[in-house]
């Protein structure tokens, strides 16, 4: 094969690879929530950031204490994949799924970063310590903690307070996510282990439930933020948390965040529609 033919074949292979990379599969989030996942995966995760002129780009940053499952949630959503092995995030990773809600296409730029000791109070600190993380100009934040270790909530509580003090959080959706729902009270022994041990375990579960109720009350009533509990391991409500986030983003868009004053499609009174607030992954 001469050099010209080799170059032509390489160009065709590159074009085919790009085509496969950008090909999207549209999935209905309502359908996925009902358990109709099967073997389908979320496609269309190009390695190049989409043009902001072609669709609305929503920049979402994941934050949380170490080992709470931030990366697992993202990879379960984007790739329908989960690994039991824990690998601390040591550098920034970016994902680009696309979502359709109310017949409006959004591209989500999901940023997964190493644990940060504090939220940068101004652009100088961001440039000096968290360059290219995009912390201060994110469209939305997802704050993750471990439901089986409610002490990890204190980390995102401190971080959220710093965010409110250091940037304008008006019209910036924040979703608090309690992950590892599958581990709640999983250490409760059987009755054969002894009534005393069982009573101790049940008491511990009761304390955990009380702390969770306090967290939910703080997040929803005082912070005015969304709240979702999920399990990345078993893909419980992972789709639901992204759906809730995008509904928050879409509501802000239509309420004065740059969109027209017209209501979103299918939201008029008089019959409604079964497609209202439908959210799909593309």
Description:
This protein is an alpha/beta fold. It has helices at 3-22, 29-33, 70-79, 123-129, 153-166, 195-222, 238-254, and strands at 27-28, 56-64, 93-95, 98-101, 104-112, 140-146, 174-179, 226-229, 279-281. Strands 1, 2, 3, 4, 5, 6, 7, 8 and 9 form a nine-stranded mixed β-sheet that branches. The chain contains seven helices and nine strands, in the order H-E-H-E-H-E-E-E-H-E-H-E-H-E-H-E. Strand 7 (174-179), helix 6 and strand 8 (226-229) form a beta-alpha-beta unit. Helix content is 36%, strand content 17%.
Instruction: Report the biggest beta sheet as strand number plus sense, adding barrel if it closes.
Output: 9 strands, mixed
What fraction of the residues are assigned to beta strands by DSSP? 15-25%
CA-based gyration radius: 22 Å
Helix/sheet category: alpha/beta
Distinct helical segment count: 7
Instruction: Note the run of SSEs as H and E.
Output: HEHEHEEEHEHEHEHE
How would you sum up the global shape? globular
* Fraction of helical residues: 25-40%
If you average the pLDDT, what whole number results?
77
N-to-C CA distance = 40 Å
| Poorly predicted residue ranges | 3-7, 15-27, 37-48, 50-54, 187-192, 258-281
Number of strand segments: 9
Name its key features.
282 residues, alpha/beta, 36% helix, globular
Brief summary of the model shown:
The protein has helices spanning 3-22, 29-33, 70-79, 123-129, 153-166, 195-222, 238-254; strands at 27-28, 56-64, 93-95, 98-101, 104-112, 140-146, 174-179, 226-229, 279-281. It is of the alpha/beta class and 282 residues long. The longest helix is centred in the C-terminal third of the chain and has 28 residues, at 195-222.
